[in-house]
Design goal:
The complex is a heterodimer of chains A (178) and B (387). Chain A is α+β, with helices and mostly antiparallel strands and 178 residues long. Helix content of chain A is 30%, strand content 25%. Chain A is elongated and about 75 Å long. Helices cover 46% and strands 13% of the residues of chain B. Classes of the chains: A alpha+beta (178), B alpha+beta (387).
């Protein structure tokens, strides 16, 4: 892995590197480096398999971290490429021409995080959600509990399922937390 | 438009579909359909009996697992992860536990590593048994599903006596496993394995030697070998194309390096080859369980000494941990930020690629009656897509 990283450093501008395991490293790169680097890893270094593409919301820093994890089957090693994009202008270049499966990930990220990948197939079609009008739900500032309380009503006549209450009222057993 | 979209548009050989021409019909297969694995639907465009386009639609059982995990402490995440995949939940427990152990620097006792391997192989057998019933059912061989459900129930009995639960075991915790094996487990497991072997011999005769099954599956749904990496295909779907890809061998974990086995491969890469790889892989799992029970340590701790689970804080970091489940590569990408909650957990199930991009690629040109069997032959579970 270290030899590979040294080779990559000679050709590309790499940011911080995390060598997590001998067979797994994460590298931060700029947006414009990503596509050439992914293409180089695929065509010249044997990383033929896109394992996943996902996002991490660093809301405190105003950034989304996008991670492309690619796998070299022959040498049994993985490299994760990280690109930080601004939360207030979340746009990234699509890579489905390198790996067709990326289109599904890109579509999901558009819906769940609001990160756009212009030109990606069916990118504006609903993926999992239907008729969603709130902010993208996987962002950290989307509060699931608040959304549920505001969107759904409590069903009238529903009994408690609290174990201590049930024991006290139905079994005559005192104790528990109440 | 990006360069990528240009390339795709330029290489798509299919003629444009003009729905107003009267030649085409739109059909929905699923989400309630005997040939659909799980709650998912395929929007088919057919021309006569031939399907010219298939678009996948998911979202029928999205419960926001990954979001829910971010709101819970590391130990509270544990009962959620197994629910991502009903037929084979243990890989979620293992991958999550292994990722937490790596990020937190937790060692796992030797005995726990053997028991974890045992559980994963038991789960693999159950998953294959469900698949075989579904694959045979797609061709009207309903009796196969009855047989495999019977023996799967026997394996669920073994799970129940070991873990206390039949489906969601919640037995593989960060740091080890909850307990050792109960008294008499080996003898009862040996009986169960013999019963499964007897059933598998019947399945081979009735399903794999069946003229209708062979005629309907051979040469159908072929995955060209050069698509394996392009589409991120893993597990039996890749091995049926002749590639010996198996995470248990390529990235050895738990005690697999100490066990004797070879990845099962096929060559034709059609529906029959995929079914046959899974049948033979099931027999390998039976052999692996026998090896494990013969060699595993019978004493020693099953759990590391850990600090109070309610107060865990894991340093900032990220990792990806994978395992070979019955459908291919299963992985967890976990990001921590130094707090008592995970920053992000992303579940990478094999169905994410197999049931979406790959299925959409394979559907055009198939006969409408083969679509259900084709989907089953990829062995997909929609919850892995929606998580």
């Amino acid at each position: 892995m270290r030899t590979l990283l040294a080779r990559l450093k000679e050709r590309f501008a790499l940011g911080p590197i995390t060598e997590q395991r001998p067979d797994l490293a994460f590298v931060t790169v700029e947006r414009e480096t990503l596509r050439p680097l992914l293409r180089h890893l695929r065509d010249a270094e044997g990383f033929t398999h896109l394992v996943l593409l996902t996002a991490v919301d660093w809301i405190e820093e105003g950034l989304f971290q996008l991670t492309w994890l690619v796998h070299d089957r022959r040498r049994a090693r993985d490299i994760g490429l990280r690109v930080m994009v601004a939360r207030d202008a979340p746009v990234m270049d699509a890579v489905h021409d390198l790996w067709p499966t990326a289109a599904t990930y890109q579509r999901e990220l558009k819906e769940m995080f609001g990160i756009d990948f212009p030109g990606s197939p069916r990118i504006d079609e609903e993926f999992i959600l239907e008729g969603w009008v709130d902010i993208p739900p996987y962002r950290r500032d989307f509060d699931t509990l608040k959304f549920s309380e505001e969107t759904f009503e409590h069903r009238a006549g529903r009994g408690t399922t609290d174990p201590a209450t049930h024991m006290r009222e139905h079994l005559g057993i005192q104790g528990g937390s109440k | 438009m990006t360069a990528g979209a240009d390339v795709l548009a330029a290489t798509d050989p299919r003629p444009p579909i003009d729905l107003s021409s009267g030649k085409y019909l739109k059909l929905w297969q699923g989400p309630q359909h005997p040939g659909i694995t799980g709650n998912m639907s395929i929007e088919l465009t057919v021309c006569g009996d031939e399907v010219v386009e298939g678009k996948t639609h998911v979202g029928y059982l999205h419960r926001g697992f990954e979001k829910l995990m971010e709101r819970r402490t590391f130990i509270q995440v544990f009962p959620i992860v197994c629910r991502v995949c009903v037929p084979e939940p243990d890989f979620n427990e293992y991958c999550y536990a292994a990722a937490i152990e790596e990020l937190a620097g937790i060692e796992v006792p030797e005995r726990a590593r053997w028991i974890r391997t045992l559980i994963l192989e038991m789960g693999r057998i159950n998953s294959y048994l469900m698949y075989l019933g579904g694959q045979a059912g797609a061709f009207g061989l309903g009796v196969i599903g009855q047989w495999t459900t019977h023996v799967r129930d026997l394996m669920l009995d073994r799970f129940e006596e070991m873990t206390g639960a039949r489906i969601y075991h919640m037995f593989i915790l960060p740091g080890g496993v909850r307990d050792g094996l109960p008294d008499g487990f080996d003898r009862r497991m040996a009986e169960t394995l013999r019963e499964i072997e007897r059933t598998m011999a019947d399945v081979e005769n009735v399903m794999f030697h069946n003229a209708v099954f062979k005629k309907r599956t051979r040469g159908v749904g072929v995955i060209p070998v050069d698509l394996v990496d392009t589409y991120g295909i893993t597990g039996p779907n890749a091995r049926a194309a002749g590639l010996p890809n198996d995470v248990r061998k390529d990235h050895p974990y738990l005690v697999y390096p100490e066990l004797r086995f070879e990845p099962v491969i096929g060559h034709e890469s059609d529906m029959y080859a995929r079914a046959d790889v899974r049948r033979r892989d099931l027999l390998v799992s039976i052999d692996l369980i026998r090896q494990i029970l013969a060699r595993m340590p019978r004493s020693g701790p099953t759990m590391s000494r850990l600090p109070n689970v309610l107060h865990w804080k894991i340093p900032r970091g990220e990792t990806y941990v994978r395992g070979e489940c019955s459908r291919g590569e299963y992985g967890y990408y976990v990001v921590t930020d130094g707090s008592g909650y995970p920053r992000r957990i992303n579940v990478r199930g094999p169905s994410y690629t197999h049931a979406m991009a790959l299925l959409e690629h394979l559907i055009p040109g198939t006969n409408i009656s083969d679509v259900a069997a084709l989907m089953v032959s990829l062995h997909t579970y929609p919850p892995e897509i929606e998580r």
